[in-house]
Amino acid sequence: MSGSRIPGFYKLDIKERVEEIKAFASLNKEDVSLLEKGLSLEKVDGMIENVYSIYPLPLGIAVNFRINNRDYLIPMATEESSVVAAASNAAKVFRSSGGFRASSSKPLMTGQIQVTDCSLEKAASSVIEARDEIIDSANQQDPVLVELGGGVRDVKARLIDDMLVVHILVDVRDAMGANAVNSMCEALTPLIEDLTKGRVNFRILSNYAMERTARAEASIPLESIGEDIAQDIVSGYRFASLDVYRAVTHNKGVMNGVSAVCLATGNDTRAVESGAHAFACRGGIYSPLSKWSIDDDLLKGFIELPVAVGIIGGGTMHPMARLSLKILNVSSARELGEVLASVGLAQNFAALRALASEGIQRGHMRLHARNIAVMAGASGVEVDKVANLLIEGEKIRVDKAREILDDLRKNG
Ligand code: MEV
């Protein structure tokens, strides 16, 4: 397999980019045809209700990523320009110092069973005493998961106001886990009612995946980005750690990368986003998901976030998602979580570096101008030529781009 460092990738045309991805990920003819044609209306009818069309989003590849000494090409689906370029640039910067080091906890998801109308303390002790019986009963619901080494690991009883809430902690292996956990919670209803002499109301997975987190860290020598910029990045991080207005935007930048990879791989972006934002609040104050510091002449970044994602089942069975997962070549949901954490940290670094230097508008404008050039019909080398002239003329509009393109084609 060739590496993910592909200089000038962004200058290639789409066919050439696909060739590079094909070589990297050993794609076959059918894969390439799916990339070119996308899905038909017939294929998507039934994926949701009342389908009447398809909403195409651009699918970009972030290059240069090296995580735990392995190269990755990272598919990202997003409507926002600059995101893929920013992730790729940041990955290039960190690559020269060995890339990202990432790790993750076991794939444990929590299911909640709400019990009302019971004598709380007594019901809680009955649940705890019947821990093994509850685990056995839930596991019988999903023998395949158990065979794969997963299943219920623990049972907890929480008293919340006038209700008892039973938690089951389930190792969901490589699935996101919503189906497995929800089925188990529902199947446990008669047993829990019998044990608690109460009434079971809600039975549902929690998206606060506190037990299923991924971490990534990376560092670069100060001289590689300049000491002043590094200090301004740390100061900008401190700003986010002291002010919720800034922290939300800081984390939005992180999620630009995380959500784009989730979407490309068919994962539930809302599950990951709601989990991440709650995690950012775990200390009682909404805080940045990442941390930046200067130590030993190095700028060091660290991130941790919950990663309720899978590589099998649910949305990951969408043919485009399967193809993204093939390109990513992750062998477990944990590895995917580690990729997400690394992309989130890279995305965050790119935003902080831009904010600490030229600001983000210049880069955005360049990409916006390129998009407008493409909309006006420019292709290949024309795109940058038209974009540069649009920026020089300070009118980034399609009609202007058409004029410039006509002129270029007439006069070269
Ligand atoms: C824009 O989509 C994301 C940023 O606002 C993130 C940040 O400010 O850190 C650039």
Q: What are the distinct ligands in this entry? A: (R)-mevalonate
Sheet with the most strands: spatial strand order: 3-8-10-9
Return the CATH topology of the largest domain.
3-hydroxy-3-methylglutaryl-coenzyme A Reductase, Chain A, domain 2
> Quick one: CATH superfamily of the largest domain?
3-hydroxy-3-methylglutaryl-coenzyme A Reductase, Chain A, domain 2
Main β-sheet description: 4 strands, antiparallel
Q: How many helix segments?
A: 18
Count of individual domains: 3
The low-pLDDT segments are none
The CATH architecture assignment of the largest domain turns out to be Alpha-Beta Complex
- Percent of residues in helices comes to 40-55%
- Under the CATH scheme, which class of the largest domain? Alpha Beta
Q: How would you characterize the overall build of this protein?
A:
Helix content is 51%, strand content 20%. It folds into three domains: 9-105 and 212-359, 3-hydroxy-3-methylglutaryl-coenzyme A Reductase, Chain A, domain 2 (Alpha-Beta Complex), CATH 3.90.770; 108-206, Alpha-Beta Plaits (2-Layer Sandwich); 363-411, Helicase, Ruva Protein, domain 3. A hairpin with a 2-residue loop joins strand 5 (151-160) and strand 6. The radius of gyration is 24 Å and the shape is globular. The strands form three sheets. It has a four-stranded antiparallel beta sheet with strand order 3-8-10-9. A four-stranded antiparallel beta sheet has the order 5-6-4-7. Strands 1-2 form a two-stranded antiparallel sheet. 42% of the residues are buried. The chain contains 18 helices and ten strands. The protein starts with 13 loop residues before the first helix and ends with a helix. Helix 4 (83-95) packs across helix 15 and helix 11 crosses helix 15. With 412 residues, it is of the alpha+beta class. The structure holds (R)-mevalonate (MEV).
